[in-house]
Amino acid sequence: MHQTLILGAGLSGLTAAYELKKKGVPFLVLEARSRAGGRIHTVAGSGLGVPMEMGATWFGDKHVHLLELIDELGIGYFDQYGKGIALMETMSFAPPQKFEVPPNDEPYHRVRGGTRALIATLVREVGQENIQLNTAIREVRLEADALVLTDQNGIAYRCQSAISTLPPRLLFKTVNFQPALPEQLLHIMAQTHTWMGESVKFGLEYARPFWREKGFSGTIFSQSGPATEVYDHSNVEGTAFALKGFLAGEVAVFRQEERLALLTRQISRLLGPEAADFVSYSECIWPQEPFTHTPYDGYILPHQNNGHPIFAKPVLDGRFYFAGAETSPEFGGYMDGAVFSGRLVADNIARPTTGEGL
Ligand SMILES: Cc1cc2nc3c(=O)[nH]c(=O)nc-3n(C[C@H](O)[C@H](O)[C@H](O)COP(=O)(O)OP(=O)(O)OC[C@H]3O[C@@H](n4cnc5c(N)ncnc54)[C@H](O)[C@@H]3O)c2cc1C
């Protein structure tokens, strides 16, 4: 029998594991994907190796829980590059407006080496042997003296308590509970927005920062697309260069070559023909990631029900806990929320239980 099982090796699950390990509480992390990180997903550009953030990227000075963890793990960070002229494309038939973004009192930061540095360090601290990949939990059953979790291969794991770090809507859609969870909880889970789950991200590596050389910052906002936002994504060392941003969700239906052709045409129009001379292209279509996103039945507002108080109370005889960015009362949906909720749930699991919930 396991003492504690943690569902998900994203930032929240790994933070919970890291904290439990410090407290001497035994655990095993079960992760559906073949990699740790979840919505933190840095891929190395295949040409120059720029750490390309396909998921979470930025944070600010307000994100104190994340900053504490970054400091504790000895990981550096740096400010997002923004020097030069930014472009705003409001009409597809008119030239873009040019503007300079004034220095921000609250600059936003990027993790040195990419957010994967955070995940790799946590995995090292937690211990690879305490993380089991390729294990998607499909059922949670309450028995007299234990919880029994069953994975996609029918393998059962008995435990005293379990922590879910899945986005609540994903948990609602993909995991079967015996007995069923309370109606109101199910309703809130179904109606909880998964932050950025609809995003399509791209990265383009370049041998030279041709946009900087022309006085552009690399920042583009566009209402005509296919890229809706673009930012300079060069490495901190200033040795490898990249642009990275978001594509309009509609382009997910195209083949990759078509998306890329539309994208390079747009960036060439805005920053110059050198845009077509990219070294590598990366992309991630998050709506097609079954361990992050499930389509909504109606319209759900961004961050809807993130940090809802209902997630603070464990269920199934106080054995099944909710964590993960979307359950966090602080900065719900963000990396900071993932860290906060991971720490909170570890504190609650380690505390002698009163049976009264969190
Ligand atoms: C494109 C994009 C851009 C973003 N940008 C930012 C940003 O700039 N700044 C910021 O602060 N945040 C950003 N975010 C949000 C940030 O990524 C999340 O807040 C954070 O990574 C969530 O961590 P988590 O551990 O709570 O959830 P997840 O990372 O979603 O982890 C959940 C884990 O559970 C696993 N899992 C799923 N189903 C099962 C199952 N049945 N059994 C076992 N495991 C399962 C998943 O594979 C995953 O690893 C962005 C997200 C995306 C997608």
Number of domains: 2
Q: At CATH's second level, what is the architecture of the largest domain?
A: 3-Layer(bba) Sandwich
Annotated CATH homologous superfamily of the largest domain: FAD/NAD(P)-binding domain
Individual helix count: 8
Strand content: 25-35%
CATH topology assignment of the largest domain: FAD/NAD(P)-binding domain
Topology:
Blueprint: E1 2-7, H1 11-23, E2 28-30, E3 42-44, E4 51-53, E5 58-59, H2 64-72, E6 77-79, E7 85-89, E8 97-100, E9 109-111, H3 116-126, E10 131-132, E11 137-142, E12 147-151, E13 156-164, H4 168-174, E14 176-178, H5 183-190, E15 200-206, H6 210-213, E16 216-222, E17 227-232, E18 241-247, H7 256-271, E19 280-285, E20 320-322, H8 335-350
Helix pairs in contact: 1-3, 1-8, 2-8, 4-5
Can you walk me through this structure?
- The protein is of the alpha/beta class.
- The chain folds into two domains: 1-40 and 117-195 and 290-358, FAD/NAD(P)-binding domain (3-Layer(bba) Sandwich); 41-114 and 198-288, Polyamine Oxidase, Chain A, domain 2.
- It has helices spanning 11-23, 64-72, 116-126, 168-174, 183-190, 210-213, 256-271, 335-350, and strands at 2-7, 28-30, 42-44, 51-53, 58-59, 77-79, 85-89, 97-100, 109-111, 131-132, 137-142, 147-151, 156-164, 176-178, 200-206, 216-222, 227-232, 241-247, 280-285, 320-322.
- The strands form four sheets. Strands 1, 2, 10, 11, 12, 13, 14 and 20 form an eight-stranded mixed sheet that branches. It has a seven-stranded mixed sheet with strand order 8-7-16-17-18-15-19.
- The structure holds flavin-adenine dinucleotide.
- Flavin-adenine dinucleotide binds at residues 7-13, 30-33, 38-40, 55-59, 136-137, 165-167, 170, 174-175, 195-196, 199, 201, 286, 291-292, 324-325, 333-335, 338.
